[in-house]
Design goal:
Strand content: 15-25%
Number of strands: 17
Largest sheet: 8 strands, mixed
Structural class: alpha/beta
Radius of gyration: 26 Å
Distance between the termini: 47 Å
Number of helices: 25
Shape: globular
Length: 598
């Protein structure tokens, strides 16, 4: 819903929240996942919860909320509130603020007393986080502290150990250090949010003393949106690729009319510097694993001449796909999605032309189209929109662009073979298939939330879930890495399941998925071989697999049939159940991949 995309009108959302929610719930085109979210507040959270619900529904998450009583966040966790325990949250959001710091230093305190006070304020938070990790094993989102809205000591408040600002900054540093050491713990940076919004407006004392709101009512949608961006990233709802126009988007001017020598880019003019800064911002996204593409109405020669300028930050090799032609941009975008093998809802289209934005938004399902018209605001608009919110960075993220480039080379080689088996053998493939290991927990969780097409049950898991399965002796877990002569694809496949509680010779496959970038390379057969071996070692005789249809996973409807399973049943919605009886002499299905087994 456009009204809920950044930049949005907060007052409109607050006023129209009921009708917006009704429209979202009635949208039959949205395939949502359900998540239980506990909001534990050090202030009033009702409106915040309602705003979070709207933004979550808009990105495909149907939330169920638990809401603590006012300022009972610590007690709910530490004293095992039965309602919270029975709720079994998938994620816990702790909404505290500087208003919850009850004891600040005074100028009469010694330095030693200030250090003691810092630990006294911080320690209950760490106790609470530890208790959550032990009792709930779910991700935690914790606010840091916004700056105090006044400085008793003036500018010295920043540097003097007695200053409230100094004290708050040191607390935030301790929060950050904890986050660096704990993978399922995320900081909701309200300190930055309040600064952007304007601290005096954000921390208006009227709203605290009148309603016990941690921020002004008008700021609540901004806070909710920022919080939801973290949840969106945890559950794989981020976008994956930027689709960029060229003229007046990556540089000033029209390269076809002005010529490459006369477009605005580089350090010679203030306008050129703005475009260069935007190019630097775009290029930095490659390190996050964001895919970069071009969609421009231009002759390709002109487009390349602009990118090949010595002072252009972005070069042709930075882009996986360059569509510089005179086709309609909506058609180009659909072709880009097809070539990258990702959904159009994974794309962010950046174009200064409002007519082109309107056409793409109306013709291409799910694509994000930010309102960008003035290069001065390009970075701010994209950055605050949170399309690529980071909650973890894996080695696969850092190498993703190289992996996709290697896929292009594989497709070229495939075209030169008439026999597909010969082509597969020519790839010289090696696989590592082993039980879940700490090194890859983040990537495995990421795959469960991002993989949609080759995903039999679309079970979504946090890293805490993955770690729990790995440590449970009733589970068999497998990840698969695949490399070939063109490069390393990283972790591309995940299978896990559990032994039946009543029938120990029976094994249920809870999740089987694979990245689409390694489709049709027989990796699924290599995973099947290793799963059968692991099950046989445990004395398991039968495997039960499940397929639950979604709008995107129709390609694996008959997957279990191809693996030799027999269909047991199918319901009216198309959910199917399959059985595989392990033969005494199991013949391996994989013939072309060398496997390094656990």
């Amino acid at each position: 819903m456009k009204e809920l995309e950044y930049p949005f009108n907060s007052e409109y959302i607050l006023k129209k929240r009921k009708s917006i929610k009704k429209s979202l719930i009635n949208d039959e085109n949205t395939n949502r996942i359900s998540k239980r979210i506990a909001v534990l507040g050090g202030s009033t959270t009702h409106d915040l919860k309602e705003m979070m619900e709207l933004f979550l529904l808009n990105i495909g998450i149907a939330p169920e909320f638990y809401e603590s009583e006012y300022n009972q966040y610590w007690q709910d966790v530490m004293f095992d509130n039965p309602e919270l325990t029975e709720f079994k949250p998938d994620i816990i959001f702790i909404h505290t603020s500087s208003r919850n710091i009850k004891d600040f230093p005074t100028v009469r305190d010694s330095k030693e007393r200030v250090e003691e006070l810092l630990e006294e304020v911080y320690a209950p938070f760490e106790q609470m986080w530890t208790k959550i990790a032990d009792s709930y094993q779910c991700p935690v989102i914790q606010n840091n502290f916004e700056q105090p809205f006044y400085r008793l000591m003036g500018n010295s408040d920043f540097s003097d150990v007695h200053g409230r600002l100094n004290f708050t900054n040191r607390l935030n540093e301790k929060f950050a250090k904890y986050a660096q050491k704990h993978k399922n713990f995320f900081i909701n940076d309200i300190n930055y949010m309040a600064s952007c919004y304007g601290l005096q407006k954000w921390a208006d004392p009227f709203y605290w003393h009148m309603y016990k709101y941690a921020c002004a009512i008008q700021a609540i949608p901004e806070l909710a949106y920022n919080t939801v961006n973290i949840i969106k990233s945890v559950y794989g709802k981020n976008q994956k690729a930027l689709v960029l126009d060229l003229d007046n988007t990556l540089w000033g001017g029209v390269v076809g009319d002005d010529g490459a020598d006369n477009i605005e880019i580089g350090q010679e003019t203030s306008l050129g510097q703005l475009y260069s800064e935007f190019q630097e911002y775009v290029k930095a996204h490659k390190d996050l694993g964001v895919l970069l593409t071009i969609n421009s109405k231009n002759d390709e020669e002109n487009a390349l001449s602009g990118l090949n300028r010595p002072d252009s930050v972005l070069k042709p090799e930075d882009f996986l796909v360059i569509k510089a032609n005179w086709s309609n941009k909506d058609q180009n975008i659909m072709e880009i999605a097809k070539e990258l093998n990702i959904g159009t809802d994974s794309l962010v289209f950046v174009d200064d032309n409002p007519a082109e934005r309107h056409i793409v938004e109306s013709q291409v399902a799910g694509v994000r189209v930010p309102e960008v018209e003035d290069v001065v605001k390009f970075i701010t608009t994209l950055d605050r929109a949170g399309y690529f919110e980071v909650t973890s960075i894996s080695d696969d993220d850092l190498a993703r662009n190289d992996m996709y480039k290697a896929n292009v080379e594989r497709k070229k080689q495939e075209a030169s073979y008439t026999d597909y088996s010969d082509y597969l053998r020519s790839l010289d493939m090696d696989a590592e298939i082993q039980a879940f290991t700490p090194m890859y927990m983040a990537r495995i969780a990421q795959l469960t939330n991002k993989s949609n097409q080759f995903n039999l049950t679309t079970k979504r898991c946090s890293q805490a879930d993955i770690e729990s399965f790995a440590s449970n002796t009733d589970y068999i877990t497998l990840y698969g890495k695949l490399s070939d002569k063109f490069g390393d694809n990283g972790v591309v496949s995940v299978v896990f399941g559990h032994v039946d509680n009543k029938e120990q010779v029976l094994f249920h496959i809870d999740l089987w998925l694979m990245s689409c970038r390694v489709l049709k390379r027989d990796m699924e057969f290599a995973m099947m071989d290793e799963l059968v071996r692991k099950c046989a070692d445990k004395g398991i005789e039968r495997l039960i697999g499940y397929y639950y249809p979604t709008a995107k996973n129709g390609m694996v409807k008959e997957f279990y049939k191809l693996q030799g399973f027999t269909k047991l049943k199918e319901d009216a919605e198309g959910n199917t159940e399959w059985e595989f009886v392990i033969p005494k002499q199991y013949e391996k299905k994989n013939k072309v991949i060398r496997v390094n087994e656990a």
